Amino acid sequence: MSRENPEPLSTAPLAYSNPEFLNSPEGRLFRIMAEYQEPMARFRRERIQDTVVFFGSARFRALDVANHELELLENTGSAAAAPVDQQPARAHEVASGDATEQKLQLAEAAVEMARYYEDARKLAGLVSTWAKTLPGRRHRYVITSGGGPGIMEAANRGAYEAGAKTIGLNIKLPFEQMPNPYITPDLNFEFHYFFMRKYWFAYLAKALVVFPGGFGTLDEMFELLTLAQTHKLAKLLKAGLTEDDAHEAAFDREHALPSVGVPDAPAPNAEELLGPDIAKTR
Q1: 3-state DSSP assignment of residue 27
Q2: 9-19: pLDDT as tens digits
Q3: What is the pLDDT of residues 61-112, one digit of tens each?
Q4: Bond prior to 39 in cis (omega within 30° of 0)
Q5: Considering the entire predicted model, what is its pTM?
Q6: CB neighbour burial string for 224-247, b if at least 16 within 10 angstroms, e if fewer
Q7: Complete edge-to-edge strand list for the sheet that includes strand 166-171
Q8: Could you check whether the bond before residue 83 is cis, i.e. omega within 30 degrees of 0?
Q9: What residue ranges define each of the domains in the chain, with the CATH number in brackets?
């Protein structure tokens, strides 16, 4: 090729539509910012003001499922089932006498643990039903979970059954974790960065409800409690383990979920109107 007559060049890709750059180490800042700004835009569009966050095991199942068709998962939040020899006994195995002692113990434990699923489902429904009665143009105390199965599914399910919006903040993992079907479609999120997911758990939360769980539950719980203890999170009104009675937990108004209406005057500005109500640090 002659240096005097070079071939014409094709148009270079725009930086923000160049996947090679966006997926490179140099593009990490923009990926992080996208996981901040894109959820913010959706929360504003859906008029979400604040949330009640549910944490707990991904392995608990509904009581009817635990009694009949329980499948233990391969990993926390995984869409794949554990091997057959690690599954609880099924009804037909018990009836035929083919169930091993280990399988019987697993089945009994699954039914016992299912009560936490039902408690989370009930509490989320009660909170959502109450929140729908609050005045204002934005959605208050929206039930939020990590978006997967177990307690996460139970919380989203309770809000869904109450006819309320409900948020799922899923995370991309080495094993597949599918969003549960009870999340409001426009509020179904998937994050790459754990710290950005935790940001959205924390900075919309007015209350934290923690059920029994594993390392992930403990990690999320202690991080939020640390933020509250160090006065980095000014709006978390109550944090702790779920109470035995869902009605008592849902309507402990003095400490957990006070009704805060939108003031009549002055008129709300655009940020106040569209939300979300981001917590301030002290």
Answers
A1: helix
A2: 999 999 989 99
A3: 787 776 655 555 445 555 566 565 656 555 555 555 555 666 666 666 777 7
A4: no
A5: 0.76
A6: bbebbeeeebebbebbeebeeebe
A7: 188-191, 166-171, 142-145, 51-55, 205-210, 238-241
A8: no
A9: 43-67+114-257 (3.40.50.450)
